[in-house]
Amino acid sequence: MTERAPIIRGIRPDREVMTTQRLPYFVGISGRTVDATGLSMHVVVIPPGGRAEPHIHVGYETGIYVLEGDVLTRWGARLEHEVVSHAGEFLFVPPGVPHEAINLSATAPARAIVARNDPEELDKVQRYDPLTSTTGGAP
Predict the structure, then answer these.
(1) Distance CA 30, CA 14 (A)
(2) CA dihedral 69, 92, 52, 25 (to 10 degrees)
(3) Does the pLDDT value for residue 136 go beyond 60?
(4) How confident is the model at residue 38 (pLDDT cuts 50, 70, 90)?
(5) Confidence of residue 135 (pLDDT cuts 50, 70, 90)
(6) For domain 16-127, which CATH number applies: 1.10.443.10, 2.40.10.270, 3.10.50.30, 2.60.120.10?
(7) Could you tell me the CA-to-CA distances from 38 to 24, 32, 120 in Å, in that order?
């Protein structure tokens, strides 16, 4: 069997994909697009007044860099904790921590770069119901 020589590739995310958490992603780097083996990066858009469905990431870390807007992230077993991220700020989400993201603007979309240490992360997101769950992320 012959190994392929590694190559550097550019990619322009040109199509929207609706995610399990009900936010539009523009897929960039992933196992499917560039044969990545340990990384994925996407652009996420939260529409004006929009929010993600509460969810968890199963088995991978997530780093988020806010490009535009102000985003409230509620997290914890009952989504009882909050952090606001502004344009130019990073946010870290550990694996398995329940959370939801909310665009604080009613008139402008919020945009962010999402990086994960799993090339197939879209397959490993699970919806989360804070009203019926008995377990969840630690404070």
Answers:
(1) 14
(2) 80
(3) no
(4) very high
(5) low
(6) 2.60.120.10
(7) 22, 12, 9
Decide if pLDDT at 117 tops 70.
yes
| Residue 76 backbone zone (phi > 0: left; psi -120 to 50: alpha; other: beta) | left
Q: Can you give the C-alpha Rg of the chain in angstroms?
A: 16
Q: Where are the domains of the chain?
A: 16-127
Task: State how far the Cα of 16 lies from the Cα of 28, in Å rounded to an integer.
Answer: 11
Spatial separation of the C-alpha atoms in residues 128 and 121, rounded to whole Å: 16
CA angle 16, 53, 14 (to 5 degrees): 10
Give the Cβ contact number of residue 98 at 10 Å: 23
β 24-29/16-18 pair status: antiparallel
pLDDT band at 98 (very low <50, low <70, confident <90, very high): very high
Q: What's the token pair of residue 97?
A: 């921590």
**Which band of pLDDT confidence, cut at 50, 70 and 90, is reported for residue 105?**
very high
